[in-house]
Amino acid sequence: MKAVDVLVVGGSATGLVAATTAKSNYPEKSVAVIRKEEKVMIPCGIPYIFNTVGTSNNNILPDEGLVKLGVEIIVDEVLEINGKAKTCTTKNGLEIAYDKLILGTGSLPSVPRWLKGANLENVFTIPKNKDYLDQLQQKLQTMKKIVVVGAGFIGVEVSDELNKAGKEVTLVEILPHALGATFDEEFAAEAEALLFQRGVKLRTNIGIEEILGDKKVAQVKLNNGELLDADAVILSLGYQPNTELAKKMGLELNAFGFIKADQYRRTSMPDVFAAGDCAEKIDFSTGKISKVMLASTACSEARTAGLNLYELNTFATFRGTVGIYSTCIGDTAFGVAGLIEKTAASEGFKIVIGSFTGVDRHPGKIPDAHKETVKLIVSKHSGVVLGGEVMGGKGAGELINAIGIAVQNHMTINDLLMMQIGTQPLLTASPAAFPLIKAAEVAAKALKK
Questions:
Q1: pTM of the shown model
Q2: Strand locations in 95-222, DSSP E?
Q3: Cys-Cys with 183: which of 83, 141, 188, 247 at CB 3.0–4.6 Å?
Q4: Where are the alpha helices (DSSP H) in 149-307?
């Protein structure tokens, strides 16, 4: 029987960060990562293999950091874990004893059971499996008409990439707008308009009834009876936690099927931790169970688990997911952090809004200057920033991260008004019209009313 001090199950972003954190902070301990894949995909980069990066080989999580630290990598599949005996058995017949266990088993694409025709040939999902994605990419080369179902981040990004690759793409979304579950209407509508301008056909505010074909996909039937011709269908309908191992070993799951885990990422079983898509999350602002699955959140949880294996660190707790997303359509980036306006209102918060549109360079005649809009959602009672949205150039991704920090640290509008910033004409907006601060000014005025 093989024995290790810390065993991490799962090799994606969660496993990588959990293992490196554990080994860095407890160098005297032996740490091993066991994963099914020889090569692991960078999760957020998967849509871009269909055009921008060209191949999945250009989207691989490097192993160098693990190897340099002395983390052992085992390519195998865990079949069963005995939490009481602290052992696991693998597909290749290996038995491993551990002292501490971190589960980072991730998530799997959702395919509704009610969807007729989902098992036809050329109906695909977007998993994090390199072999599957390589086969998908190869098959798509001979296909022209692609229907993508679900206009969340993955659906939008895959549609845009396939469109750039010369495919005829129709994106179907049951909500009124693409990205409508994550952004307020004015941001989602702008993203939708950009997709349309770039050549993606959009069918919003409508769902699909079934996928038609004789063995292979031929058409998609919408719930209004309309038929869309299709050589392939890509289902991008969200993901579900991969918790079969956890269930078999007797760990407690929540109502949505996630592994229950506290602020230190401890589960219901001693010495077993869970992080990433498979683990329970609480929304930072509402305190409710969240279904958010993000690589950034997974990495934060993985660091928390790795730091708390042998002693609890009160500074290293996961206090809830802020939910920070960003994407890019052409040269326009969209970002969101925390609560959007419609969610804050539906949760019962009394809010004010601060919104400002400026330019992300100064002067605005600099060649890559881009219009930049910042929207802040602020508690009327306390002035605390509950969330924000950004639309602008590619710097919008880092700007939304700054807003995420403001949310996570309960910063107020006054904190933003007094923030000291570094600006540079080629890199940022003007200090006299910095959109984040100007949006805070608008919100501050609204608070006085």
A1: 0.94
A2: 95-103, 107-109, 123-124, 145-149, 168-173, 201-204, 208-212, 219-222
A3: 188
A4: 153-164, 185-198, 244-249, 295-307
